[in-house]
Amino acid sequence: MISSAPAPLFPFRQVALVGFGLMGGSLGRALKALPQPPRVRAWASEFRDLEEGMAVGVLDEAAADPEELFRGSDLVVYAIPMGSLPGQMEEHRGLWEPEAVVTDLGSLKGPPQDLMERLGEGWRYVGSHPMAGGEGTGFAASREGLYRGIPVWLTAGSATEGSKARLEAFWTALGARPRWTTAGEHDRRMAWVSHLPQLTANALATVLEGEGLGRDELGPGGRDMTRLAGSSPEMWSGILAGAGPELCRALRSMERALAELRRALEAGEAERIVARMEGNREWFRGGPWK
After folding, report:
1. What is the pLDDT of residues 224-281, one digit of tens each?
2. The pTM is what?
3. Are 154 and 168 in contact (CB under 8 A)?
4. Kind of pairing, strands 101-104 and 39-43?
5. Residue 120's closest CA among 84, 155, 96?
6. Which residue, 25, 63, 160, 243, shows the most beta carbons closer than 10 Å to its own?
7. Which of 132, 155, 181 is the last residue of a domain?
8. Other Cβ atoms closer than 10 A to 287
9. How many of the other CB atoms lie within 10 Å of CB of 99?
10. Which residues sit opposite 18 in a β-bridge?
């Protein structure tokens, strides 16, 4: 039986995007693909990105300044590198509409949440971290389906129930799968599942480069493993600065695992490595993140 119940209304009338590269541009595309899309405004450091967004109909307006950007916007989304986020939030405080909800797409939630609490704006702030991305930069790297079907971590300190409900409905409407956690637990997990893989890819690229080997010499597995080495250094500088001791603990665990493999090879005990690989395969067969 086909339900005749109306689809839930999208919770925001106008969305302001601070940053319009891969993440912000993809969000703009997703918003404009909705049956009843909100009005979308954006500001970006590269005006070319805004021009491209206007040309393909993803943007309703390219804002010349923050005051223009936030006027009438009931959702503000910061899609900029972590290193720039605190300064931008502090600068923009007082320009947001009285009832506007504020979120960001960064992979650390503790620092922006703490900042918004100190500014007295915690009631309106709900952190978002979509588990999506890519090594490209700028609006040209964006794509409409980036957020569809992916988990999005949501965190809230003193945010109101209304702010939380609207952000959850926002991501649900875009086809994502929102999950709630605390900022501290989120950042602990990301050290292992996001930041450690990034630095592991960087380490592997460094070793290969030191041997004079190019990425074009790698097979499919090697290319998969080094893909993250093409990520934006600008994006990662702020993340690493605020990552904290958990990432160091993750790196020490990686060092121990590699050392164990080396010692087994030096001792001629290949069976130890094979046994470890069997265990790894069982872990892998656990399937994708549900």
Report:
1. 999 999 988 888 888 898 888 999 999 999 999 999 999 999 999 999 999 999 999 9
2. 0.87
3. yes
4. unpaired
5. 96
6. 25
7. 181
8. 6
9. 9
10. 43, 78
CATH classification at residue 232: 1.10.3660.10
* Boundaries of domain holding 279: 187-284
Residue with tokens 């493999």: 261
Give dist(CA 254, CA 33) in Å, integer. Answer: 42
% residues pLDDT > 90 (the chain): 82
- Which three-class secondary structure state does DSSP give residue 188? helix
Quick check: 3 pLDDT over 70?
no
pLDDT digits (tens, 9 = 90+) for 106-122: 999 999 999 999 999 99
Quote the radius of gyration of the chain (alpha carbons, Å).
21
| Count of the separate structural domains present in the chain | 2
Task: Tell whether 7 is covered by a domain.
Answer: no
- Is 184:110 a contact under the CB 8 Å cutoff? yes
Q: Which of 139, 162, 181 is the last residue of a domain?
A: 181
Q: DSSP string spanning 239-280?
A: HHHT--HHHHHHHHHHHHHHHHHHHHHHTT-HHHHHHHHHHH
DSSP codes joined into one string, 58-120: S-SEE-SSHHHHHTT-SEEEE-S-TTTHHHHHHHHTTTS-TT-EEEE--S--HHHHHHHHHTT
Q: How far apart are the first and last CA of the chain?
A: 28
φ, ψ of residue 30 to 5 degrees: the values are -65, -40
pLDDT digits 0-9 by tens, 208-217: 999 999 999 9
